[in-house]
Design a protein that fits this description.
By secondary structure, the chain is of the alpha/beta class. The chain has four domains: about 5-130, Rossmann fold (3-Layer(aba) Sandwich), CATH 3.40.50; about 130-255, Transcription Regulator spoIIAA, CATH 3.30.750; about 290-375, Transcription Regulator spoIIAA (2-Layer Sandwich); about 380-435, OB fold (Dihydrolipoamide Acetyltransferase, E2P), CATH 2.40.50. It has twelve helices and 19 strands. The protein has helices at about 15-30, 50-70, 80-90, 105-115, 165-170, 180-190, 215-225, 245-250, 270-275, 280-295, 310-325, 350-375; strands at about 5-10, 30-35, 40-45, 75-80, 95-100, 120, 150, 155, 175, 195-200, 230-235, 260, 300-305, 330-335, 380-390, 395-400, 405-410, 420-430, 430-435. The strands form five sheets. The protein has a six-stranded parallel β-sheet with strand order 2-1-3-4-5-6, with helices on both faces. Helix 7 packs parallel to helix 8 (about 245-250). The N and C termini lie far apart (about 55 Å). Bound molecules: S-adenosylmethionine, iron/sulfur cluster and FE3-S4 cluster. FE3-S4 cluster binds near residues 48 and 166. Iron/sulfur cluster (SF4) binds near residues 159, 161, 166 and 201.
């Protein structure tokens, strides 16, 4: 009898992309997809960025044990947490552990383990073991979003921001060859994909390790492919967001107008301790240059509160920067100490409650700003890619504008994947609503 698998994904978009590749790899190795407890092989594609993400994955792995025993199945710990602490969990919480270098090769690893009793621990970080994220088999498969594909262009990161575990678990920067990426993007376009999201922890550094073309050139080449209507990219680092990227965006309308540009803090002293290698003024000046060149654009960010030693005045500097810059959106986090990072050695100066109070104050401020930024879109006509039928009504669909704002408009299942011009009428909660125009 064919055995079944289920993948649960935590963490960033790079993990979402890896999970898609893992599903293909598992199918290629002769396993069939199934829902949660009905699966024989439960794969947890995990994240280590904050303690909470790890705790959640561990709790869910524990909860899966009984069903897995009953089915004589196995639990696979994959992704960043596998790399960080998997060696100690193999044989107890998980039957197999597979680090991020090998996750796209997981089908073969599981098959070899089940059929031939091959090893349980796969945590090599040797470049030679880095299974490519550009999988030529991943063409035209009917996943939930056939018009959109994630496309990982770099693996790893060597910026060593003081709080961040990613360089430890994902290893150094490795750029996949541009010729392969562009060829793959063309083949995706030939199969009806109209939207791509280029992924990397710092996509702006593309090519620096390999001497390949710059990120700006790669972005231009992909956005010029026939049939590609929108190219998104994540994540940018302010220190590497060079003017040629801004110019390329200005000159290529298929490139998103939504830029995710983590600022992390509004205090120069804290940015220095974080090893971010820019100042608040440099960040502001970059935002000004982007806004001047692109006119219509949305800038979102990541912010951490309660970094070790952050004073109340330094936290207020973050609030001031958030208010004066006016972000369209922000992902905001309470600092979580991670063993193996530089900041782990720094003493925390505030209590958990104080950290949460700062976080809540920041979230409230950003919510109000986000609503104002959204409201000014009323009256504009935007290009919307429809993603799904609305959860609230079968007669409405939800899509995203080039500024990555969600929009609800009248429509049905037949509109999914369509590119429509939509006149924005107003805001409902955190979502725009509008009417299509011919
Ligand atoms: N590479 C991206 C960058 O440079 O911003 C994203 C890195 S991380 C996957 C996503 C976000 O998680 C970071 O931008 C940061 O705000 C947050 N983060 C990372 N480590 C953290 C920690 N130890 N505690 C709290 N938040 C953290
Ligand atoms: Fe982490 Fe910094 Fe690398 Fe982003 S750039 S993944 S925050 S070390
Ligand atoms: Fe988490 Fe790994 Fe992404 S630590 S944020 S899943 S790179």
């Amino acid at each position: 009898m064919r055995r079944t698998f289920h993948i649960e994904t935590y963490g960033c978009q790079m993990n979402k992309c890896d999970s898609e590749l893992m599903a293909l790899s598992m199918a290629g190795a002769g396993f069939d997809p199934a829902d949660g407890d009905a699966a024989d092989i439960r794969i947890f594609n995990t994240c280590s960025v904050r303690a909470h993400a790890e705790d959640r994955a561990l709790a869910n792995m524990r909860a899966a044990q009984a069903a897995i025993r009953e089915r004589d199945g196995i639990i696979v710990l994959a992704g960043c947490m596998a790399q960080r602490i998997g060696a100690g969990l193999a044989g107890s919480a998980a039957h197999i552990v597979v680090g991020p270098y090998q996750t796209p090769d997981i089908g073969r690893i599981v098959r070899d383990h089940l059929d031939a009793g091959a090893g349980a621990v796969h945590l090599s970080q040797e470049p030679a073991r880095l299974a490519t994220r550009i999988n030529p088999e991943n063409i035209g498969d009917a996943d939930g979003t056939p018009w959109h594909k994630w496309l990982t262009i770099t693996h790893g990161c060597e910026n060593f921001c003081a709080y961040c575990i990613v360089p430890a678990v994902r290893g150094p920067l490795v750029s996949f060859p541009s010729a392969e990426i562009i060829d793959y993007a063309k083949r995706l376009a030939d199969h009806g994909v109209i939207e791509l999201t280029l992924l990397g922890q710092n996509v702006n550094q593309y090519g620096q390790d390999s001497g390949d073309i710059s990120f700006a050139r790669l972005l231009a080449s992909i956005s010029e492919i026939d049939g590609i209507r929108r190219v998104n990219f994540l994540t940018s680092h302010p220190k590497d967001f060079t003017d040629d990227i801004i110019e390329t965006m200005r000159d290529h309308l298929a490139i998103t107008r939504a830029i995710h540009l983590p600022m992390q803090s509004g205090s120069d002293r804290i940015l220095g301790l974080m090893n971010r290698r820019y100042t608040v003024d440099a960040y502001r000046s970059l935002v000004d240059r982007i806004r001047a060149a692109l006119v219509d654009c949305a800038i979102s960010t990541d912010l951490i509160v309660g970094f070790p030693g952050e004073t109340d005045a330094e936290f207020r500097d973050t609030l001031d920067a958030v208010e004066s810059i006016g972000f369209d959106d922000a992902f905001m986090y309470a600092y979580s100490p991670r063993e193996g990072t530089a900041a782990h050695a720094l003493a925390e100066s505030i209590t958990r409650e104080e950290k949460i109070a700062r976080l809540n104050e920041l979230i409230a401020l950003q919510r109000a700003i986000g609503r104002t930024r959204l409201a000014v879109r009323a009256g504009a006509t935007e290009v919307v890619i429809v993603e799904r039928v609305s959860k609230k009504s079968d007669d409405e669909v939800m899509g995203k504008t080039a500024l990555n704002h969600p929009v609800v408009l009248p429509g049905g299942a037949g509109d999914i994947g369509a590119v429509l011009r939509v006149r924005i009428e107003g805001v409902r909660g955190n979502t725009l609503y509008g009417e299509r125009v011919e």
